[in-house]
Automatic annotation (TrEMBL):
<dbReference type="InterPro" id="IPR006121">
    <property type="entry name" value="HMA_dom"/>
</dbReference>
<feature type="domain" description="HMA">
    <location>
        <begin position="1"/>
        <end position="69"/>
    </location>
</feature>
<dbReference type="GO" id="GO:0046872">
    <property type="term" value="F:metal ion binding"/>
</dbReference>
<protein>
    <submittedName>
        <fullName>Heavy-metal-associated domain-containing protein</fullName>
    </submittedName>
</protein>
<dbReference type="InterPro" id="IPR036163">
    <property type="entry name" value="HMA_dom_sf"/>
</dbReference>
<dbReference type="Pfam" id="PF00403">
    <property type="entry name" value="HMA"/>
</dbReference>
Amino acid sequence: MKKSYKIEVDCANCASRMEDAAKKIEGVKDASVNFMLLKMKVEFEDGAAPADVMPRVLAACRDIEPDCAIDF
């Protein structure tokens, strides 16, 4: 399953680091962050519930940029 989310990120470098961090989260098969569009696309592993995975993705992103926000 793939989903797209609105993300608040301040710089392109941080967006790249957030993309890498999201890919390491259990339940995430693939992730991409588009800094220009402020969008995060996440492909979830089979059986992974987005409602369970996305709080962990947000926490990983906030380790990079504390004021990051993801609308999920």
